[in-house]
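ESCALATION

Customer reports they have been waiting on this structure for their group meeting. Please prioritize. Original submission:
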Amino acid sequence: MASDYESVAAVILPAGSSVAAKAPSSLRSRAALAALLIAACALPFVLQNYHIFQATMVLVYAVALLGLNLLTGYNGQISLGHGAFYAIGAYAAAILMDRFGVPYWLSVPAAGACCLAVGFLFGLPALKLEGLYLALATFALGMALPQLLKYKHLEAWTGGVGGLVLTKPEAPFALPLDPDQWLYLFVLAVTVLMFVVARNLLHGSVGRAMIAIRDQAMAAETMGINNALCKSLTFGVSAMYTGVAGALGAIVVQFVAPESFTIFLSITLLVGVVVGGLASIPGALYGAVFIQFIPNIAEKISKAAPWAIYGVILIALMFVMPTGVAGAIRAVRARFA
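Update from on-call: job pushed to the front of the queue and completed.
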């Protein structure tokens, strides 16, 4: 079918017109991306420490939402318990730093590797479940993990109900940066790396296999795709992304405790994915901005019923932008293209 469209386009359009049309668009996109990255790097030098902390948490949530979007948006698997992988990543980094003295920068990939293994192993039995049944299984995981973190035989590692307190890292090499500025730039570098890896993954054969399974699993298997392996790997990679975000979040907040990772966190991540836009890489950033700032805005509007205001804002966004912020932006671009 694609070749038919290309042959028709070759007859109708003048030679080289498609290339000429794509080139300026690609240059504009790269220029806009470069400008955005420069602005992001300059951000900690113009904001106060509290606002730097908020911007850092936006980046942390963006990595977590990107991981969940790989699973739900691109592979079609619904998870209501990804907060559990966020907690596993946070505790893995906290235990390595607090109990073993591992450097913070090394604890982040270690936490990601731990969540990759746990997610892959969880994805294997979950292959027998689909749709709402898989959602309920992940929901059970998200409900159970905070209780497991309080288990008395694990208190020596997890700190029990009291959790673990971490120290904010200083800037290396005597750089003239305070801890908040350095931590923001460190998280920004990790975020950019994770987004680049996700983009390359989705634009390759693995990404096409993920999308094929989401759209038509039986046809994908007929074409030779190993559905079971691909879904398990997707679950593992998604958990890895969320675990990296959890590790970064633990370093930024400097504290981990079971009560910080209730099922509400999993629901919040799912809300962020839907608001930002399913199957959209930039949608992770839009969703992260939503879950970081909208609760604060709702509380400023009404201190008596902030979650009622939050619900009204969420419902209004779903009516105005049913495909999420990324979908709305695509629609506007298509209209004016």
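Sent to customer with the following note: The chain is about 75% helix and 0% strand.
Escalation resolved.
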